[in-house]
Write a structure and sequence with these properties.
By secondary structure, the chain is an alpha/beta fold. The protein is about 55% helix and about 10% strand. Strands 2-1-3-4-5 form a 5-stranded parallel β-sheet, with helices on both faces. α6 packs antiparallel against α7, α6 crosses α9 and α7 runs antiparallel to α8. The chain is elongated. The chain starts with a strand and ends with a helix.
């Protein structure tokens, strides 16, 4: 994956120059494609952080989005932004719509919403569950989901500390962690649910570390 790369499907030179100027200032690289076939081939080989599609280039946006979503591996969850002059455009499967003409702040905010902090390349690691969540639901929604998840983890530890049966709590905690992308934490609590030796101690230790770390960046 190219963590600071943006792909733009467009033949509009003005659009290209503006995006390149703004993203280069943030230490990002921009790659331009003029047709869908070229975009699909390149994205499947080198997964960028985000793809922007100019509606003036694509006659069937929904089909293009489905083709991108059908790519293997991490490319299938690639955030897609649609650039369009039509205020009524609904996006046809894209993560978000950005209306033209382009404005620097709006573009940077939109890219950041789906990729995380623009100046933090290390954040965009697929090992980071918070980043994986942002790629799917956006930073605004992900932040709220993470806050609720951390609160639920604290509550689970408090209940166990007060004498609640761990197995009664473990199933729900494991499911929540799995949904949020915390695979190791989900596995640890599943082990508690099935009463494996030393599982509770390990799950509590990992949960406390997750709460303290709270991967917000």
């Amino acid at each position: 994956m190219d963590h600071n790369a943006l792909y733009l499907l467009s033949v509009d030179d003005t659009c290209r120059r503006l995006i390149e100027m703004w993203m280069t200032d943030c230490s990002w690289s921009c790659h331009y494609k003029e047709n869908v076939g070229q975009l699909l081939a390149d994205v499947s080989d080198r997964v960028p952080a985000i793809v922007l599609i100019d509606s003036g280039v694509v006659s069937d946006i929904a089909t293009t989005v489905r083709a991108l979503r059908s790519l293997p591996g991490s490319a299938s969850a690639l955030p897609i932004l649609l650039l369009t002059p039509h205020v009524e455009e609904a996006g046809q499967g894209c993560n978000a719509v950005l209306h033209m003409p382009l404005v620097q702040d709006r573009l940077l905010d939109a890219v950041s919403e789906w990729t995380g902090p623009l100046d933090d390349k290390a954040f965009r690691s697929l090992d980071n569950p918070y980043y994986r969540l942002i790629r799917v639901v956006g930073q605004s929604m992900a932040a709220g989901m993470l806050t609720r998840c951390i609160a639920a983890l604290r509550q689970a530890l408090e209940k166990i500390a007060k004498g609640a049966a761990p197995q009664a709590i473990a199933h729900d905690v494991a499911g929540m962690c799995g949904m949020m992308g915390f695979e190791k934490l989900s596995t640890a609590w599943s082990a508690v649910e099935y009463d494996e030796p030393d599982a509770l101690e390990k799950a509590i230790e990992l949960t406390q570390a997750t709460i303290e770390r709270k991967p917000s960046r």
